[in-house]
Write a sequence for this structure.
């Protein structure tokens, strides 16, 4: 039986703040965070309303984002969204991640997080959308699917290059039941093994969801 | 060093779905989940936009919800939001939880979850708001603060009774640095020890946030 007190962990937050400066896809509206009642104005409490695309900031995709018969975000398995994840150092990769770049992925890796040049370029810390970011090639997506990986994280808003003729990377991952986690801020997440927790909201029928993505390791 | 493969867990989701039927406070707008692009209509993908009060459904309160100088949701400590939690059986309590009801709380409990008659009445499964729900009395809030508890969860939309002359329960908890987690659906969460994970979104300056609240135990 689980008992208090808890083990002690060091946490690193890989989530970008949701607010007026959040990085969003160029066709998405800005994130809106609005205080609709305020103590200062004499209301009994502060109350905030939020409004945004589920693909804004740090988020994940559900299969139905690109697959007509794909499942929605509330059907994603919780046990895939929490557990050991390997953060791969790809800091020199500014364009397509190819299978050759993935040779360092451990055999037993079920959750793979790609720390590319997007991180050193601080792309998720800029409110300006860029079309020029590191992403998976279709071959790399196939490689990941062939290895039984269940979740793949990346440090910009898409696992796929901007404007492909067909969304082959998304389709390959989503058909294989792999969860893409996009928009991670990996600045403070060093390469290696971590425990990842990145649960989506339980949004009925949604093709994606914001997540609070945290990496942790036992302290000491 | 943390290594794959992970330990195996049994998960119980205590989050209510976010959508048109989500239980919200009587003065809050309904949760809006809208598909703004769809494969069916010929768009390249499905895209959903969401809009709601941060106090809708399963959520937590930040100190600034009721305290003028209180901190916002992004400052809540991650280590309090994840860890061992004790679910206390109060299934006969339909009104105020008093200190006498809390005698069964273990000494080492840092995260306390109250499973009251709200659960058997399935209040979080009804889209109709009710003013009649189990809640903490001001004395019980004081008791909790005196015990060094850091998080308190309850199975309806507020830890406090409807319409108090002053929000003494919220103020007592928030001033003591205790995080109220409200709107839990505890139907499938039996009393006893669990590991709780209930991370909020990182919403800039917000007085609260929806959470995905999950309870887990090692399998077998």
């Amino acid at each position: 039986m689980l008992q208090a007190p808890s083990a002690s962990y060091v946490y690193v937050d890989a989530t970008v703040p949701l607010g007026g400066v959040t990085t969003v896809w160029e066709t998405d509206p800005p994130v809106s965070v609005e205080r609709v009642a305020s103590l200062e104005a004499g209301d009994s409490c502060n109350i905030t309303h939020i409004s945004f695309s589920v693909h804004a900031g740090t988020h994940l995709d559900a299969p139905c984002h690109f697959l007509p018969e794909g499942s929605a975000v509330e059907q994603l398995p919780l046990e895939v969204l929490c557990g050991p994840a390997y953060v791969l150092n790809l800091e020199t990769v500014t364009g397509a991640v190819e299978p050759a770049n993935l040779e360092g992925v451990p055999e037993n890796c079920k959750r793979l997080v790609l720390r590319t040049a997007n991180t050193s370029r601080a792309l998720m810390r800029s409110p300006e959308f860029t079309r020029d970011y590191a992403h998976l090639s279709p071959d790399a997506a196939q490689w990941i699917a062939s290895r039984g990986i269940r979740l793949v994280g990346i440090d910009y808003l898409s696992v796929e290059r901007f404007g492909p003729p067909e969304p082959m990377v998304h389709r390959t991952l989503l058909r294989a039941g792999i969860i893409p986690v996009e928009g991670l801020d990996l600045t403070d997440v060093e390469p290696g093994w971590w425990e990842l927790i990145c649960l989506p909201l339980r949004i009925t029928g949604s093709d994606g969801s914001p997540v609070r993505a945290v990496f942790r390791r036992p302290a000491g």
User: Anything to note?
Assistant: The first helix of chain B runs from residue 78 to 81.
